Amino acid sequence: MTRASSRDAILRVFAEHVARRGYADTSLGDIAAELGLSKGTIVHHFRSKEALLGALHEAYFGRRFAEARFILAELDDPVGRLVAMIYALLAAHRDDRAASLACLRELIRYLEGGPGDFVRKQRVDYTQIVVDILADGARRGVLHTTDPRMTAFHVFGMCNYAWTWYRPDGAQPVEEIAARFARELLGGLAVAPETGAALDDRIAEAIATVQRAPGRMPAVS
After folding, report:
1. Among residues 79, 118, 129, 160, which is most buried (max CB within 10 A)?
2. Other Cβ atoms within 10 Å of 16 Cβ, number
3. Nearest to 74 by CA among 213, 215, 219
4. Is the overall model pTM greater than 0.85, yes or no?
5. pLDDT tens string 23-69
């Protein structure tokens, strides 16, 4: 059986190739050569390139779910949880960049068959976390939304497609972008929007919570 370190290395290099070239132009032979393995070794453990993409997606969402569970355990209020989820989604574009690009850009493959059922369930379950946060906020009277699922799609639309324009070496750090997104979204969602230092403190607490999440990828400086 492949050692965990070897498996992780295969997934890491595969993610880098897919992020750089796209899935169609990624070759298992190139990945094997870079790692000093035979192509047969990769196929033996992952069966196919499509199965490897599925494994990459599973590992990527495993990290996102771990962050989300930590957020829910550490923060009680829906507003703080929502801000933390926004930051977690955006920070992945920097700290887990290759896997983010590979998984988000290749989404269409999981809408058209293959290992799609499992991957779609991961996406549905992760979306539900944000839906539940929004619904809880509406029940508590701190967030205004008549359709938590549609509002969740708004959140994911803002954050997931950041891969199309965000660059880790850009002028604005991801923490600043997340804070701006949170302020603008809460301006429409919060029943009694906080402002000034109070809102700054809430955003800072949410970001710090995500940064403490165990097992997350280290921040890229």
Report:
1. 79
2. 18
3. 213
4. yes
5. 889 999 999 999 998 888 898 888 888 888 888 998 999 999 999 99
| CA 163 to each of CA 25, 90, 113: distance values in angstroms, whole numbers, following the listed order | 19, 9, 24
Tens-place pLDDT, residues 138-174: 999 999 999 999 999 999 999 998 988 999 999 999 9
pLDDT confidence of residue 218 = 67
Give the C-alpha distances (Å, rounded to integers) separating 135 from 62, 68, 162. Answer: 24, 16, 25
Give CA 210 to chain center in angstroms.
12
Cβ–Cβ < 8 Å for 95, 219 = yes
Contact 53, 108 (CB under 8 A): no
Q: How far apart are CA 150 and CA 103, in angstroms?
A: 22
* Rg over CA atoms, the chain: 19
Within 10 A of 58 (CB to CB), how many other CB atoms are there? 15
Dig out the tokens for 166 from the structure. 């965000």
Task: For tokens 């993409």, name the residue.
Answer: 53
Structure tokens at 30: 């190139």
What is the Cα–Cα distance from 39 to 167, expressed in whole angstroms? 32
